[in-house]
Write the C-alpha cells for this entry.
Amino acid sequence: MLVQRFVDAQSYEAPNHWDVKGLRLQGFADGGPENQWVGFSQFLPGGGAGPDSTPFEKIYVVIEGEMTLTIDGEVTTLGPMDSCTIPPGEERLLENRSNHVAKMIVVMPYPEGSRP
C-alpha cells in the first residue's frame, strides 16, 4: 500500500491549461499505481484546458464548482460529483465559466514511456 498525504502532493504543469493548479495525488512513484495516475485540478474562474485531445482516455470527476465541456459543438456542464469519460482522440475544451474555484479529480493512464 502507498499512502499519499494531500499535504505532500506535488504540483505539476499540464500542457495547454491556464489558470489551474494541478496536484498529483497518486502515480509516478515507486509502489504507486501501475496503470494510471490521479490528479487534483483547481481551476480559477476563467481557467480551463484545450481545445486538444490525448491518445488515451481520461476520467473527470468534479468535486466542487462547475466545469463546462465542449465536445463536437455540444456543451455540457458538470457539477459536484458529476463525472465523464473522454475517449482517446476526442477533442475537448474544458472551462470554468463561473466565478468560483472549481475542483476536479482527473484519472488517466501514464503517457507512453513515463512510468518510473
